[in-house]
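#structure-requests
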Amino acid sequence: MALSVAHARFREALASAGWQIAQDIPLSDDGAANPSRLLIRRGRVQRQILTYAWKITSEGRGRVKKGRDDLDWRVQTTRSHDGDLLAPPGQLSAGVGWFEDLGVFAGFDPWVKRTTGSSSSVHFTDALLRRGAAEAWAEEMRPDGPTCSFQPHLVDRFLSWLMARSHEAVIMEVDPLEYSPEGEDTTLIRLDPRRGWRYFDLRAGDCLVVRHDGQYIDSSVWQIEVIFTDRQKSVGGSNRPYLHASCRRHGVVRDEAHLAELTS
């Protein structure tokens, strides 16, 4: 596999932190770099990381913010497979960009940012990258989810940040576009992530309660069995992602105050 600069820098950071690179294999049979399957070891600790790594580039002409002279930045998420960015269960998924000008990485959770499209982008602000360079570690919450920036010697902190993002099962209030119970025990819930980036954070095993116009529709608690993306063209021609969650009834909460406490 021909290593990209970003991937090589990420390997170097891991090695400097004491990790042995036991395996580094591209997912694609043709050797394309993104993603690759990294197996790293340090003492008795072992991590499997599905790694996407790209060079950070300018957002391009016409993207300068009003009243500012600087540009923000992005990675073009070109990859060797079709569909969303991958985040397989049982291993860590890492999205990293390398910014040569400042010698820092930018990082994100590929699961949360998975619906970029095959050659679209993940964006980082100039302020985030500069804070990462000056302070060694910086975080920023964007409208589409969290990002971070870090100097190479804090690669372990980045791995911990990703592991914290791969959360234990949660229960979340949702305001769906569609709520279609199928009998007593199953339902399909359709979500618009523009109503809240946290919808992108939902995973199989998480639980949902349905709320609309400030009221719980019912007291059902639904557990996600499968969640997948459905892209549809808007009137303006943009390709917008929606989420479909196939759920099974997990339980019923009779006390609305308790339900509110669970979802807080």
